[in-house]
Design a protein that fits this description.
- This protein has helices at about 5, 35-45, 185-190; strands spanning about 10, 15-20, 25, 30, 50-60, 65-80, 80-90, 95-105, 145-150, 170-175, 210-215, 225-230, 235, 240-245, 250-260.
- It is mainly beta.
- It has one domain: Acyl-CoA thioesterase, double hotdog domain (Porin), CATH 2.40.160.
- Strands 1, 2, 5, 6, 7, 8, 9, 10, 11, 12, 13, 14 and 15 form a 13-stranded antiparallel β-sheet that branches. Strands 3-4 form a two-stranded antiparallel ribbon.
- The chain starts with a helix and ends with a strand.
- About 45% of the residues are buried.
């Protein structure tokens, strides 16, 4: 099952969409946050005349596992170009609360006027080890078997129990079977790599995300995505992770930030 099928939604009663959260898109039984955001975003897009996510924030209220869910969508504001949407995803009770801005697809076609950063420097994909699911954990989780993810050799230490000491994770990403990457896929990509903090001298354990925001800046060109995720502060029992996603042409296509609990 490809990503489009795994994150598909169908309309139900007015303002409510139905989806099936698939197994193996999870972190050892807990569905991946970026994957759930993509499901929610598809429902929000369907309720906004197929506008695409530009900025989406998720608050994760409780873990969610595979099975049927409902996505309840409200339209808070509709303008000429942008719509502000709100949604919840849940089964027996709400598990994810979403708030986002959605725009006409053409709104993402504007030229880049200023770029103050560069894509991460990566060896070719075939020189980077591929993340393959581990049946016993803690790395890599089952979800990495749903796409091709290759980690920079300098950052792949946690996969062998040898963290680099720098809270950074860089690598390549693409969907299997040449499935195209769109704005919904970028929500998944932003949460698809091992946490950058695993390269610090901290336990390899579950790092629950409290809140995550992903901004889509452009529709990516086809091919591999270059990705970089970094953590600078681990304090007060919390950590942040900042992400950059670049396409094969060297254009920034998405930014992300998530707030998570210290591994426990």
């Amino acid at each position: 099952m490809n990503f489009g099928e795994a994150s598909a939604v169908t309309p139900g009663e007015e303002g409510v969409w139905k989806a099936e959260v698939q197994p193996d898109w999870d972190i050892f039984g807990v569905s991946n946050g970026g994957y759930l955001m993509a499901i929610g975003a598809r429902a929000m897009s369907g309720s906004s005349q197929d506008r695409r996510p530009v900025s989406l924030t998720a608050h994760f209220l409780r873990p969610l596992s595979a099975g049927p869910v409902e996505v309840a969508v409200d339209t808070l504001k509709t303008g000429r170009t942008f719509s502000t949407m709100r949604a919840t995803i849940g089964a027996a009770s709400d598990s994810v609360a979403l708030l986002g801005s959605f725009a006409d697809p053409g709104a993402l076609d504007a030229e880049d006027l200023y770029v103050g950063a560069r894509p991460p420097d990566l060896p070719p994909p075939d020189e980077c080890p591929r993340a393959i699911p581990s049946p016993d954990g803690p790395l890599p989780p089952p979800i990495v078997g749903q796409f091709e993810e290759r980690i920079h050799p300098e950052d792949a230490g946690p996969l062998q129990g040898r963290p680099s000491g720098v809270a950074r994770m860089r690598g390549w990403f693409r969907l299997d079977h040449e499935e195209p990457i769109d704005a919904f896929t970028l929500l998944l990509v932003a949460d698809a790599f091992p946490p950058a903090v695993f390269n610090a001298d901290l336990p390899l354990a579950w790092t629950p995300t409290l809140e995550m925001t992903t901004q889509v800046r452009a529709v990516p060109a086809g091919g591999w995505l270059r990705c970089q995720f970094t953590t600078r502060f681990v304090s007060g029992g919390l950590l942040e992770e900042d992400g950059e996603i670049w396409d094969v042409s060297g254009r920034l296509v998405a930014l992300s930030r998530q707030l998570a609990l210290v591994p426990r």
